[in-house]
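Exercise 7 asks you to align residues with tokens for two separate proteins.
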Amino acid sequence: MDYSALARSYNTLSYTNQLRDLLAAFFQTDKYKDCNKFELAKTVNDAVFKNYDGEQILKYRLAKEFVTKKYVAAFEVKAKTSRTDFLVINGDTKSFEVKSKIDTLNRLKKQVEDYGDVFEYNTVVIDKTHLEKVIELIPDYYGVWYYEKLKKVVYREAKYSPKINAAEQLTLMNKKELQKYFGSTNNEQILKNCNAAQINNTLKQALKDRYDKRWSFVQTNWNSILPIDLQFFFNTNVKPEIIYGN
């Protein structure tokens, strides 16, 4: 069975009857006709997580690593022309780029360059099938994780990026954030007035402030959120009972 089709067809905002139709068509059965929305969504979630090797499985495992720790975390954070899959911020910034079994590595070289310019510690989280090729593509300061069943394997620890660039870090902040933290939206002027360490530390504070509320919501509601819906709830902060209750 093509569980990738099930994963692609699922939508957190689908109505109960739409989920019933989806499961009936996929599994060729009517046994879900009396299930409520949460039960239907959980059926999709369980089937996808058991049989599919897509990126949402690795993203969920990453989030689970940090949900009880004193970090602020975020999904899909823009960095130059790339977008890191998962970022955690506290005393340092840690980016994680996910490459699942079904992902290609075509953009990885550009992605690792972008993240290395702006984040302190950077790791690629992969399906083990990519290991040999990934090692060829990434610089030595990058970490590599993969999972064997549910066990995290740290193949290589991330080292502090030697490529940190203060000018590039400023581009991660919008004008409102630049004005708030530096009193100016002129990047050239900020670079004259502040050293690299000040800019790096300010970026961390800005990112923590930007994502703290959304990540705190995920932490508070973790046990009520299905893994397949995690990024939706991070983005929207809608109460799970509202989504699953209709």
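Second protein for Exercise 7:
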Amino acid sequence: MHEKCSKIGSYIGSFCPYRKNLVGGKVMVLGIFGGVGAGKSTVLDILREKYFAYIIEADKVAHQLYQRKEAGYLVIIDILGDSVCREDGELDREKMANILYHHPQLLDRVNQVIHPLVWKKIEEDIARERKAYDLIVVEAALFPKKKLFDVAWYVDTPQNLRCMRLKESRGYTQERIESMIKRQPSKEEYMKFCDQVLYNDGSKKDLEEQIHLRLMEAKS
């Protein structure tokens, strides 16, 4: 057995990036969904550190597409104009975010073009990493148009706790938080799309136990 696999032990079960190559394990693609401030990043950290998952974050994919000359960059220039560019030609992300926050109609126009590009890139990443990992995790706030996942989880966190986290970690105002939450899917929509729920209103240990249980259920 590979030394990394032996260190993981029975806690991990069948989830190891080397297992597929060793015994022909089946690749699982897992979707993680939830609103802003729900704690999805904590779930990703656990999956990365304890289960050696390959992580794809939709926000980071979008940021890559916003780099100069990329498809997303051209979309932003077309909709917002070159006034959102810095002197070096790259996008001024803070200025862009501020404009989109105050002009929801522009945000809708951007999202209509950017979201398909993001999910296309994610689909390409999944196909590429299947060769090396048996657990691929995709984190997003919004849903893809087509089914990409074997199973999808919704990270459910009380809104008051989400607001508190966002104020402390990002310095957001209550008004901005409520505006962001309003633009995202409702709890009911998340529950309808996802297969299972992770309740993130307790300790990290409790969350780890839920994740372990859900993974074992999915693999059985």
